């Protein structure tokens, strides 16, 4: 076969060439007949299509539930609708404290922990599956040092970094122990791939700047171990930022972010570590939201207008979230802890939904998510007893008129968008040549200062 030239064609020869023996009149009659046949076929198809469309649009309400769902609608039954949404867009929880439970109850001995059997608190594999969980951040948390240690400019030595490494170790050990269930994830593509393979994407989040030991180098090493968010503070102030404490009345130390705290955010942006503003003071949150080049998260915080505690996000900060001028993309992942949800004895699934609706009202439905705090809270709201109950919450929002796209965003899509945004900023900063920050905490005396 000869090689094609610029005049050769890849199309087959013309089909219109008359065959040998056919005369002109025969061809004319044949083409008239085929024209009539085509008109009949196309007319019938158009009629069937039009009738179908009228039935679908005009009589949607009389079509059976099953038939309706075939065309992308959701069942009228809220739980069925919720499960349909979660099959396509599973839950991504911003904050689960399983590692701190394993430290307290099993001394972090991975071989002694059986996640396939009922665990004592809110999380185990059967209940994660029942709850349609596709991903969650394993919180690698260690408590704050004693309050009096803050009087020493955060320079009193602690075991926070060792203990955090132990929490990363137990989380990763459990993820590795159940390879059919968990898959370590360090980015949005990992999350999508794990969910696609029927696994639960497992991410790591450090819950408090005190766990960094005042050091940006520690941040980089946590990143290397897979950590993808750092909560700027827990209930204590640290060298980077002020906390909101636990009860009202904590006295600010820096007035928000310190200079080193700003550098910490720059370094988190460069690395692609999400800035988490749960637990921070309002001043810290507002300054961080303005300073960060990347979208930010609240991994487990609710709405202060619904229940007035310092851990919840006030409306003026919710108004700073968005895509407008002077706004930043963010997701507030609602905490289920009864103390943050409602007055004593009043926390239930409807009250949690009220927080979601309020954040959606002020910041937009695309800026709210779920950060249960399961295994980190002593009590739970009625109707949200453990990780198997997420579908009930999605069903509650469906009852309140949220459509499938909005529900998918709440379940996890909004977090994915924000995380993707942070990954993009990281790529851009690194492409622009931003170098790692080597700033030291100015009050450290243990390391010689060298002027470069
Ligand atoms: Zn917390």
Structure, described:
This protein has 15 helices and 9 strands. By secondary structure, the chain is of the alpha/beta class. The protein has one domain (80-431): Metal-dependent hydrolases (TIM Barrel, Alpha-Beta Barrel), CATH 3.20.20.140. Strands 1, 2, 3, 4, 5 and 6 form a 6-stranded parallel β-sheet that branches. Helix 9 crosses helix 15 (404-431). The chain is globular, with a radius of gyration of 29 Å. The protein starts with 23 loop residues before the first helix and ends in a 21-residue tail after the last helix. Bound molecules: zinc ion. Zinc ion is lined by residues 207, 279, 300.
Helical run tally: 15
What count of structural domains? 1
- Which value, in Å, is the CA radius of gyration? 29 Å
Distance from first to last alpha carbon: 71 Å
- Give the beta-strand count: 9
Helical amount:
40-55%
SSE blueprint and pairings:
Elements (H helix, E strand, L loop, with lengths): L23 H35 L6 H6 L7 H11 L2 E6 L1 H9 L18 H6 L2 E8 L19 H18 L4 E3 L3 H9 L3 E7 L9 H9 L2 E5 L27 H13 L2 E3 L5 H10 L4 E3 L16 H4 L11 E5 L3 H4 L7 H15 L4 E3 L19 H10 L4 H28 L21
Parallel strand pairs: 1-2, 2-4, 3-4, 4-5, 5-6, 7-8, 8-9
Helix pairs in contact: 3-14, 3-15, 4-6, 8-9, 9-15, 13-14
Zinc ion (ZN) binds next to loops.
């Amino acid at each position: 076969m000869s090689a094609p030239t610029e005049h050769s064609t890849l199309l087959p020869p013309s089909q219109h060439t008359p065959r040998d023996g056919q005369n002109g009149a025969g061809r004319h009659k044949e083409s008239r007949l085929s024209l009539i046949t085509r008109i009949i076929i196309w007319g019938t198809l158009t009629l069937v299509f039009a009738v179908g469309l009228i039935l679908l649009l005009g009589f949607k309400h009389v079509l059976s539930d099953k038939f309706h769902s075939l065309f992308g609608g959701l069942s009228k039954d809220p739980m069925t609708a919720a499960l349909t949404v979660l099959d396509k867009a599973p839950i991504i929880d911003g904050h689960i404290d399983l590692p701190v439970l394993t430290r307290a109850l099993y001394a972090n001995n991975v071989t002694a922990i059986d996640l396939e059997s009922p665990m004592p608190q809110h999380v185990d594999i059967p209940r994660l599956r029942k709850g349609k969980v596709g991903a969650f951040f394993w919180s690698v948390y260690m408590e704050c040092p004693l309050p009096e240690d803050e009087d020493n400019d955060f320079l009193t030595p602690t075991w926070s970094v060792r203990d955090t490494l132990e929490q990363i170790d137990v989380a990763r050990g459990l993820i590795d122990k159940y390879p059919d269930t968990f898959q370590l994830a360090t980015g949005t593509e990992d999350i999508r791939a794990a969910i696609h393979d029927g696994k639960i994407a497992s991410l790591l989040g450090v819950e408090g700047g005190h766990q960094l030991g005042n050091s940006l180098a520690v941040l980089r090493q946590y990143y290397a171990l897979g950590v993808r968010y750092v909560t700027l503070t827990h209930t204590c102030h640290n060298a980077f930022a002020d906390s909101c404490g636990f009860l009202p009345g904590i006295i600010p130390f820096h007035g928000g972010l310190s200079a080193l705290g700003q550098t910490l955010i720059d370094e988190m942006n460069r690395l692609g570590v999400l800035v988490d503003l749960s637990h921070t003071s309002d001043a810290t949150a507002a300054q961080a939201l303005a300073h960060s080049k990347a979208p930010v998260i609240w991994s487990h915080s609710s709405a202060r207008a619904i229940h007035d505690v310092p851990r919840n996000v006030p409306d003026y900060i919710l108004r700073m979230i968005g895509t407008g001028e002077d706004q930043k993309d963010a997701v507030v992942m609602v905490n289920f802890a009864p103390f943050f949800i409602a007055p004593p004895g009043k926390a239930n699934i409807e009250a949690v939904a009220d927080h979601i609706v309020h954040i959606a009202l002020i910041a937009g439905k695309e800026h709210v998510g779920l950060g249960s705090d399961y295994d980190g809270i002593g009590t739970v709201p009625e109707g949200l007893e453990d990780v198997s109950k997420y579908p009930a919450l999605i069903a509650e929002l469906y009852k309140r008129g949220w459509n499938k796209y909005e529900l998918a965003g709440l379940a996890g899509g909004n977090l994915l968008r924000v995380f993707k945004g942070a990954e993009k900023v990281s790529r851009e900063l690194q492409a622009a040549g931003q170098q790692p920050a080597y700033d030291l905490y100015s009050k450290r005396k243990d390391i010689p200062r060298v002027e470069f």
